[in-house]
Write a structure and sequence with these properties.
Chain B: It comes from Desertihabitans brevis. The complex is a heterodimer of chains A (192) and B (173). Chain A has 2 helices and 8 strands; from the N terminus they run ββαβββββαβ. With 192 residues, chain A is α+β, with helices and mostly antiparallel strands. The two termini of chain B are 38 Å apart. The chains are: A alpha+beta (192), B alpha+beta (173).
Chain lengths: 192, 173
């Protein structure tokens, strides 16, 4: 499957459109839960053309696809301290700009603005949610698996939040490390 | 002349605790000031500062019907009125998380106290094996922030948790 996920032409964007390279079939991996040490471990840079990285990219998308409500998954969450993550916010009601399903390697934030607060959850912290302030306008730079092509992704709203959450994972941070205050960590369920 | 009383109520949660307690206080014309109320697992906890001319015994008597079924405990005590001594608001947020074990809060807060760092808000959550502590703190003027961070890191390492101390961003509008 190939996704056409280039920059929005209507926005007058003159950057080169990019396409997510085709990946081999992925394997569904077990998702690690906090307080696993791997989730607090900053990831190492990867060679996006390395077959092991390509396989990891495919596994992330495969695992994400079978996990209800999962819009992104980082290498740390499947037990590897590497700078790789997947994102797919397609169809989410809070999504505006959408680049479909993709994987980025060695990604970093180039610019971030228009902070807004939202409540986040995470497959690796299944029992808690937290209020986190994150940029709603974001430009990220990273490499595509397979080709190693450097791409810039300019996005907003939910996809911007998701990218920041996943980049945090690759740096060993959870949303719990960014909640806005003591009253900002919530239980998903109340136990009576 | 009214006194400032601290009213603490804690017990098994049910709808109506806040309504019942505050109705009893309103019946004494006690004025509710700062308060915090939250659910800790299945226990509802509330601490309310009230200004009232009623003595402690009268407040306890007014609250007696609310706690009559034995599911709630109440404590009423006079506290010093410190309005004239403003306390600085939090300038940093402290994030701690890791595997649960006894002594995390003690270890982390001891390293803060050693530097005169004041905790003005703190909450913890235990979710399975995961322990999460989030606090609002005030660093005293002139404190060696690098030393605070170094000691926090050391305390966190000793407790097997991860710690982050982040400045509070206030957007003045």
């Amino acid at each position: 499957m190939t996704h056409a996920v280039g920059p929005d032409e209507d926005a007058g964007d003159d950057r080169v459109a990019w396409t997510m390279p085709e990946l081999p079939p992925g394997t569904v991996r077990e998702v690690v839960r906090a307080p696993a040490e791997i989730l607090a471990t900053a990831g190492a840079e990867v060679d996006p053309t390395d077959p092991a990285t390509v396989a990891l990219a495919a596994d992330l998308l495969a695992t994400q696809a079978v996990s209800p409500g999962c819009v992104g998954l980082a290498a740390q969450q499947v037990g590897e301290a590497l700078r790789v993550f997947s994102v797919d916010v397609t169809g989410h009601p809070k999504t505006r700009t959408c680049h479909g399903a993709f994987v980025l390697c060695n990604a970093e934030v180039l610019s971030a603005s228009r902070k807004g607060k939202g409540r986040e959850g995470c497959m690796s912290v299944p029992d808690l949610t937290g209020d986190v302030a994150r940029a709603r306008r974001l430009t990220v730079r990273g490499q595509l698996p397979v080709t190693g092509e450097w791409v810039e992704i300019e996005t907003d709203a939910f996809e911007a939040v998701c990218l920041q959450h996943e980049i945090d994972h690759t740096e060993g941070l959870l949303f719990l490390d960014r909640v806005v205050g003591p009253q900002a960590v919530h239980r998903r369920q109340t136990y009576l | 002349m009214t006194d400032l009383l601290a009213v603490t109520v804690i017990g098994s949660d049910r709808p109506g605790i806040v309504a019942d307690v505050t109705a009893a206080l309103a019946g004494l014309e006690a004025n509710l000031e700062d308060s915090t109320m939250t659910l800790l697992r299945g226990q509802f906890a509330m601490v309310v500062l009230v200004h009232t001319s009623a003595p402690v015994a009268a407040v306890e008597q007014a609250l007696a019907p609310v706690i009559a079924d034995g599911t709630l405990g109440v404590d009423v005590r006079p506290v010093a009125d410190v309005d004239s001594q403003p306390v600085l608001g939090a300038d940093h947020i402290l994030h701690v998380n890791g595997a649960d074990r006894p002594g995390i809060v003690a270890g982390i807060t001891a390293s803060l106290a050693a530097h005169g760092v004041n905790v003005v808000g703190l909450s913890t959550r235990l979710a399975g094996e995961l322990y999460v502590l989030t606090a609002e703190v005030v660093l005293p003027d002139g404190v060696d922030e690098l030393a605070v961070r170094a000691d926090l890191d050391q305390a966190a390492q000793a407790c097997g948790v991860h710690v982050r101390l982040v400045p509070v961003e206030t957007d003045e509008l």
